[in-house]
Amino acid sequence: MSYVQDVLEDLKKKNANEPEFVQAATEILESLEPVFEKHPEYKKMGILERFVEPERVVIFRVPWVDDNGKVHVNRGYRVQFNSAIGPYKGGLRFDKSVNLSIIKFLGFEQILKNSLTGMSIGGGKGGSDFNPKGKSDGEVMRFCQSFMNELYNYIGPDSDVPAGDIGVGSREVGYLFGQYSRLSNEHHCILTGSGIEYGGSLVRTEATGYGLIYITEEALKQRGDSFKGKKVVISGSGNVAIYAAEKATMLGANVVAMSDSSGYIYDENGIQIPFIKEIKEINRARISEYLNYFSKNDLTAEFVEGSNNIWNIKCDIALPCATQNEINEDAAKTLLKNGTKYVCEGANMPSTLEATNVFLDSDIVYLPGKAANAGGVSTSALEMAQRSSKLHWSFEEVDSKLKNIMVNIYKNIDNVAREYGFEDNYVMGSNIAGFIKVANAMMAQGII
Predict the structure, then answer these.
(1) Domain total for the chain?
(2) Which of 89, 113, 125, 370 is catalytic?
(3) Cα(426)–Cα(365) distance, rounded to whole angstroms?
(4) In terms of pTM, does the model score above 0.90?
(5) Strand-strand pairing, 254-260 and 231-235
(6) Is the backbone of residue 327 left (phi > 0), alpha (psi -120 to 50) or beta?
(7) Catalytic: 125?
C-alpha cells in the first residue's frame, strides 16, 4: 500500500462517523499520489499526516431565548484546519444539517481553495445547527450574540477571520460583528462580508457567483466558445446562484432553471433574475412565489416540487450552487446523456465521488468547487486588504481584481494538470496546485 493510501486508511478509521469529511479527504488524497512520487521529502516530514489533522477544533454550546421566553441550546463549531500560508479564513454556516463532519469537510476543502486564490489565507470553517429560517430578527440577533460570546475567544484579525456561508447573510454578519466589537472594544476586520457602512467591500455579495462565471468563461474561451446563446441550469437561489445567474445572463446566456429546497422553477424563455432577488433577498420566501409575478397570459414558467430533478433539464452548462452531494451518479449520467458540455461547481462538493468519476471519465469540462467557487473567499481577502490599509475600492476595481484572480486560478490548475500528465483534469490540477503551496509552507516552518 502506498504512503497516501496508508494515511487515507488511517484517516477513515479515525473519522469513521464523519462521512462528508471522509468523502472530501478521499477525493483530495487520491489525487496527490503523483505529488509524493515527485516530492519524497514531503513524506519524510510527515506533511500528509499533519495536513489531514485540524490544528484546532472548538465545539461549544450556544444558549439563546426565543420571543416567547423559551430557552434553546444549539451547538457551535469552529475548525481551524491549517494556518501555514496565513490566518484561518472560512465561512460560518447556520443550518440544521451542520455537524462536525460537514464543518471538517468544508474546512479541509477551504485549505486548498484559499491556496488557489494566491492570497495569504489559511483554511478554516465554522457554524451551528441553528436554523435562521422562520426566526424573527430578535431571535437571530440573540442567537448570534450568544454564538459570538464564545467564538470571540478563538478568532482575531491576524489569526482567524470568518465570513458568511449558508444561513449567514448580511443580517447575521452584522449581529456577529456588533457583538465582537462590543466585547473587544475595537473595530477590526473580524468578519468579512460586512456591510458597506461599517467597512465591507463592494462586490462581496456578488463575488462567489460572479467568480464562478469568470472561471467558466475562461474555460469556454480556451475552447473558442462563450456564454452567448448557451442554455444554463443553476441549482439553488442563494447568493451564489443568484449572482451566477445575473452574470451569465449579462454574458448572453439563457438561464432556464433555478431551485430551492422545495422545488425548482423552469422557464424555457429564461428566468427573470430581479424577481428571484426580490423573493429571496427581500421577502425570504419560497421560489414558487416566482409564478405570482406573471399574469396567466404571460406565464411561461412552471414550478416543480422537489429540487433533485432539476438535472433532468437539458442544458449546455450546469452550475450546481445549492449544497453538498446534490448531484449523484444517476444525475451525472443524465447530464451527459442530455448533452451538457460544462459542469462548474458553485457549491462546496456538490457532486458525490461517483458523480465526479462520471464527469472525469467523460469529455465534458468539469471544474470542481474548490477552484470554481473561490471568488467569495478571494473577495473576502480583498476586503481584508482594504480594511487593513483604510482604503475603499470602487465596484469596478474589486470586480476587475476578482476576475483576474479567477482567470489565474484557471490557468494555474490547467498548467499543473498538464505538468503532471492529467490534461483537462481540473480535479487533479486543483488539488495538486493547492496542496503544493501549503506543503512547501509547512516544510519551511518545521514540524509544528
Answers:
(1) 2
(2) 125
(3) 8
(4) yes
(5) parallel
(6) beta
(7) yes
Query: Does residue 235 lie in a domain region?
Result: yes
Q: Are 15 and 98 in contact (CB under 8 A)?
A: no
Boundary of a domain, candidates 161, 188, 215: 188
Q: Name the domain boundary from 367, 387, 402.
A: 367
In a domain, 167, yes or no: yes
Which of 190, 193, 210 has the alpha carbon at shortest distance from 202? 193
Residues 6+ apart with CB under 8 A from 47: 439, 442, 443
Q: What separation in angstroms does the CA of 15 have from each of 105, 286, 303, 327, 352?
A: 11, 36, 40, 24, 18
Residues spanned by the domain of 10: 3-188
Task: Clarify whether residues 165 and 87 are in a common domain.
Answer: yes
Do 257 and 180 share a structural domain?
Answer: no
Q: In what order do the strands lie in the sheet with 365-367?
A: 302-305, 263-266, 254-260, 231-235, 317-320, 342-344, 365-367
What are the pLDDT tens digits along the chain (448 aa)?
799 999 999 999 999 999 999 999 999 999 999 999 999 999 999 999 999 999 999 999 999 999 999 999 999 999 999 999 999 999 999 999 999 999 999 999 999 999 999 999 999 999 999 999 999 999 999 999 999 999 999 999 999 999 999 999 999 999 999 999 999 999 989 999 999 999 999 999 999 999 999 999 999 999 999 999 999 999 999 999 999 999 999 999 999 999 999 999 999 999 999 999 999 999 989 999 999 999 888 899 999 998 889 999 999 999 999 999 999 999 999 999 999 999 999 999 999 999 999 999 999 999 999 999 999 999 999 999 999 888 899 999 999 999 999 999 999 999 999 999 999 999 999 999 999 999 999 999 999 9
| Residue 382 falls inside a structural domain | no
**Same domain, yes or no: 218 and 169:** no
Cα radius of gyration (the chain):
21
Residue 271's CATH number: 3.40.50.720
Shared domain check, 50 and 115: yes
- CATH number of the domain to which 53 belongs: 3.40.50.10860
> Please, which residues have CB within 8 angstroms of residue 129's CB and are 6 or more apart in sequence?
74, 75, 95, 96, 97, 98, 99
Based on the domain organization, do 164 and 70 belong to the same domain? yes
**Quick check: is 111 in a domain?**
yes
* Claim to verify: residue 142 and residue 231 sit in the same structural domain: no
Contact indicator for 346, 212 with CB cutoff of 8 Å = yes
Alpha-carbon distances of 329 from 18, 254, 340, 387, rounded to whole Å: 21, 26, 15, 44
Count, in order, helices (H) and strands (E) of the chain. Answer: 17, 12
Same domain, 173 and 288: no
E strand or H helix that includes residue 125: strand 122-128
- Shared domain for 176 and 229, answered yes or no, is no
